[in-house]
Structures are given as structure tokens and as C-alpha cells.
Amino acid sequence: PVQPNPAPSGPAAAGPPEGGSAWGAPEGESGQPLPARRPMSGGARSAYQAGLDASRAGDDTAAKGQFERALAADPSAYKAAYNLGVIADRAGQTNKAQQYYRDALRMQPDYERAVQGMVNIFVRSGSVHDAVAFVAPIAQRYERNLALQAIYSDVLALADRLDEAEATARTALR
After folding, report:
1. Are the C-beta atoms of residues 148 and 110 closer than 8 Å to each other?
2. Rounded to 5 degrees, what are φ and ψ at 64?
3. Please, are residues 15 and 112 in contact by the beta-carbon 8 Å criterion?
4. pTM for the full model?
5. If you ran DSSP here, which 8-state letter would residue 2 be given?
């Protein structure tokens, strides 16, 4: 049986590496073009990097402060919002984590790591149906984002909708 992803354990815990996916190239050839990924401003980027460094060192308090600084410097710093979600999720603050993940998705609507963070929360709480309902419209809207397609396929498999999971995977792999 397919197992849910464990709770996030680091700043980049959920989802595939940026710029790639477990399935190869990060963008498919069909569907509407993906939204551009705007880089963080200089001040936000340095605070964000300091947050990553603090998180890797195990200092979530310092990491949280740096990610908040990054968001204050650049209100579109979706990666900082996502990482604040990871920190809240690890601390058991599910509602706050969901809010940060949703904030990241408002800034970057196809950000697969934030989608995976939300899915992880739904699955851990036993709400696989809610995970499917959450990810389906995002995956359908951004069908070129292959990482989102992988997440959607995994969630469909968790919901025991294996034919749909396979069809989603096959479509993404074309």
C-alpha cells in the first residue's frame, strides 16, 4: 500500500527539488503556461538564506524570525511563507501551518512544496478525501507542473482511486 509522506522535517522537506521532479523535467508540454517564479529581492534573499541556515542548525526560533524578516522585505517571498508553514507544522500548529502554505500559494499558485505541505496535513489527519479535493483543482489548472501531477497521482492512490492515479501519472509522463 502507498504510505503518506511523514511530517516535514526541514526547510525543503516536502516535494521534489526545485527545478526538477522525481519524474524528470519540471514542466510538461501541454496545458496553460505556468506562472513565472519571481526571485526574492536582495534583502529578502539574505534573510531567507539566514533562515535556512538557522533551520539546518536546528534553531527554529531564529529561522522563524529570519523567514518573517524575508516576508517583511518582500511580501511575495513565497518560499519564506512556505518555510514558516514547515516550522509551524513541525510545532504541531496545524492551522497556522495551513495558513502559511495558503499564503505561499497565493504568492505562487503552483508552488508544489506548499501543495505537498497541505496534503501532508490532510493525510496525517485522516482526511484523504480533503487532500484530493484540495489538490485536484490545482493539479488540473497547472497540468504542466509535473511535480503537482506526481502529488495528485500519489493522493489519488492514497484514496484508493488507482485507475485515476495511473491515468494522471501516464498523462504527465507523455
Report:
1. yes
2. -60, -45
3. yes
4. 0.81
5. -
Task: Evaluate if residue 4 carries a pLDDT over 60.
Answer: no
Question: Residue 82 is inside which H or E element, if any?
Answer: helix 78-90
Sole residue written with cell 526574492 = 40
All 3 cell numbers of residue 10? 526541514
What gap in Å lies between CA 139 and CA 76, rounded to an integer?
22
Q: Does the pLDDT value for residue 128 go beyond 60? A: yes
What dihedral angle (degrees, nearest 10) is formed by the CA atoms of 33, 35, 41, 46? -90
* Cell triple for 54: 538557522
Using one digit for the tens of pLDDT, what is the confidence trace for 25-35?
455 555 667 88
- What single-letter amino acid sits at 49? Q
Q: Which of 126, 122, 156 is nearest to 14 (CA)?
A: 122
Distance of CA 151 to the CA centre of its chain: 9
- Per the listing, cell 492512490 goes with 157
Q: Hey, what's the cell of 69?
A: 524578516
Mean pLDDT score of the chain: 87
